[in-house]
Amino acid sequence: MKKAVFVFMSLIVLGTAAQALIITTADGNGADAWISNDGQSSSYWADKVHNTTGMHVRYNGGGSRFRAALLRFDISSIVEPIAANAQLQLGQTYTKGSDKVIDVYGLVDGHAGEAWDDTTLCYNNAPGFVTPDQGNNLGWYAIDSSLVWLGTFIIPGTGSSGATITPPKTLLTDPTSLPLADFLNADTNGLVTLVLINAQGTTSNNSENRFASEEDANGGFPALVLVPEPMSMLLLGLGGLLIRRRTQRG
């Protein structure tokens, strides 16, 4: 009977271990910001800092609008391998136009720019971004090999001229179209940066989308939703069983 009771308790421990861990850009050395290289006005030129609420992700195919969001997460507290169902969670605060496919890139581990400062970040110094062939401040962008494509997710649109969303609408990415686990598990220094780019925008479908940042009073901060690998949880339970059996024998 004692053994059966202990197995049941082990299952409870396993169930507890299976609970998702949420890490936001406000935790530890996390940060978030958005950049622009835009022809709309000088307020969106490549040297402008946007450490504000409502991170913009926008592109119209070049020649007018380009804005992208950078998210840094401090995952140094993670000691177990991350399962394949890891997700990115965002709070949508503004939508314009139809649904949009967002490309997500990861900054390569150990890059010198991983410690970017959200109070000084702009297109000109953002890690992985370079001056496009067309020049700056014209609505174009270019990236180098330090940004690795990870996958995509869809931003729901409204088809309208624009709508503010309060409180932020929670969006969770699909691990099948945006697999994050391998990228996160390969990290060696506890910091990971994700970059969101609306690379499929066109002049006829120039949607504008914004997301809550860590400065947003209504919450909805960008977050990683993580679950430990099932094998790690199994080993935790088996370890408890072995300790119990050794104690009984002693």
Looking at this protein, list some descriptive labels.
13 strands; single chain; alpha+beta; 250 residues; 3 helices; 11-stranded antiparallel beta sheet; disordered N terminus
Number of domains: 1
- The portion of residues assigned to helices is 10-25%
Instruction: State the distance separating the first and last CA atoms.
Output: 18 Å
C-alpha Rg (nearest Å): 21 Å
- H/E element order: HEEEEEEEEEEHEEEH
- Basic shape: globular
**Tally of alpha and pi helices:** 3
Largest sheet: 11 strands, antiparallel
**Percentage of β-strand residues:** 25-35%
Q: What is the element layout, followed by pairings?
A:
Layout: H1 2-17, E1 21-24, E2 31-36, E3 55-59, E4 66-74, E5 87-95, E6 100-107, E7 129-130, E8 142-143, E9 147-155, E10 163-172, H2 181-185, E11 191-197, E12 208-211, E13 223-226, H3 230-249
Q: How would you portray this structure in words?
A:
The protein is of the alpha+beta class. The protein has one domain (21-239): Jelly Rolls, CATH 2.60.120. The chain contains three helices and 13 strands; from the N terminus they run H-E-E-E-E-E-E-E-E-E-E-H-E-E-E-H. Strands 1, 2, 3, 4, 5, 6, 9, 10, 11, 12 and 13 form an eleven-stranded antiparallel sheet that branches. A hairpin with a 6-residue loop joins strand 3 and strand 4. Helix 1 runs antiparallel to helix 3. The longest helix has 20 residues, at 230-249. The two termini are 18 Å apart.
